[in-house]
Structures are given as C-alpha cells and as structure tokens.
Amino acid sequence: MNLSTAQPHAFPALVLNADFRPLSYYPLSLWSWQDTIKAVFLDRVNIVSEYDRVVRSPSFEVRLPSVVSLKAYVKPALYPAFTRFNVFLRDKFTCQYCGTKKELTFDHLIPRSLGGLTRWDNVVTACSPCNLAKGGHMPEKIGMRPMQWPYRPTVFELHRNGRLFPPNYLHESWLDYLYWDTELEP
Question: Are 121 and 107 in contact (CB under 8 A)?
C-alpha cells in the first residue's frame, strides 16, 4: 500500500483488549480510523502503534493509530452466540460429511421434521449436496456420519479456529499481537 496516496479509510486500527490480546481473530477486531480517533479523544484507548499517515483539521493534526489497546479490560464471554457463521467457524468452514469447503449450509443431525432443535449440539456444517442427500433422515440410517459430532464451542476454540484463516491484509505493526504464520508481502 502506498501510504502517500492511500485514503484514510484504508488505515484501520487493530483493537486489543487491555491485556494486549485481540478482541477477536475472525473477524479480526478492527476499527475504522474515525472510530479509533474518537476513542482516543474520549480517552478509552491507548495508542500502541501509529501509521505514517497524518489527518488534519483546522485546529490540530494527529497521526492515525494502527494499534490501540482498550484502557478497561473487557472480559470475553465463555461461550459464543449460536450463529450460522460461528457454526461454520467451529467446523472450520468444512462440510462435516464430505470435507468440501464449497456451497456451505448447516444441517440438523436430528431433522427438524423429527423434532430436532436448532442448537449447537444438533447442527453441523454441510455442503448443499450433502444436506440435500441427507434430507429428513437420521444420519446413521443413510450412512452419513459427520466427521465431528456437534458441540457447543468456547470463545477460545473459535479464536483458535479463526487463526487458521488469516485475513488477506495484515499491517506489519499488527504482527506482534497476532499469531499467524504469515509473511508480509512487499
């Protein structure tokens, strides 16, 4: 990224908790430069690292923060909310029947038509073809055993899985706080 011609919106800040760990890995906890500057002026964050980019107003100028840490520790929840995205993340974006990573949906092991509930211990990631093939049947009856039985993950497990999918762009100032085996491209 050419810093001299890039627009300020291209400068998000990595947000760390007060213990200097990212609030989340997937999606990566990033704030827009505007939200970051607002948090700085409201004295809610410490600036850890800055870009070379400056923004100006008639009365002041400030370098854009690239990494900030919250002043108050936010205790992470032990268990995440049940969402389609979190089911996919728990299952590492992989169909639990055939292993593909395409056309993902989710499947109720005990079909809803047989009283199955939409909750962590009854839902797995499935591709559309496998979901259609299983239909309203119990998995054992048609030989479609999932690779992993569904369970309620912890937030820490989802963070661990999120680190398997690094974003396309990581600024060099973020690398000391993130734990991906990734090389920055020139």
Answer: no
Distance CA 4, CA 17 (A): 30
SS (H, E, C) 91-118: CCCCCCCCCCCCCEEEEECCCHHHCCCC
> Taking 60 as the threshold, does the pLDDT of residue 173 lie above it?
yes
pLDDT digits (tens, 9 = 90+) for 31-74: 999 999 999 999 999 999 999 999 998 998 999 999 999 999 99
Region 127-138 average pLDDT: 95
Q: How far apart are CA 50 and CA 122, in angstroms?
A: 45
CB 138 within 8 A of CB 111: yes
Q: Give me the residues paired with residue 139 across strands.
A: none
| pTM of this structure | 0.72
Integer-rounded Cα radius of gyration of the chain: 21
CB 53 within 8 A of CB 59: no
- Give the C-alpha distances (Å, rounded to integers) separating 32 from 132, 150, 175: 41, 35, 18
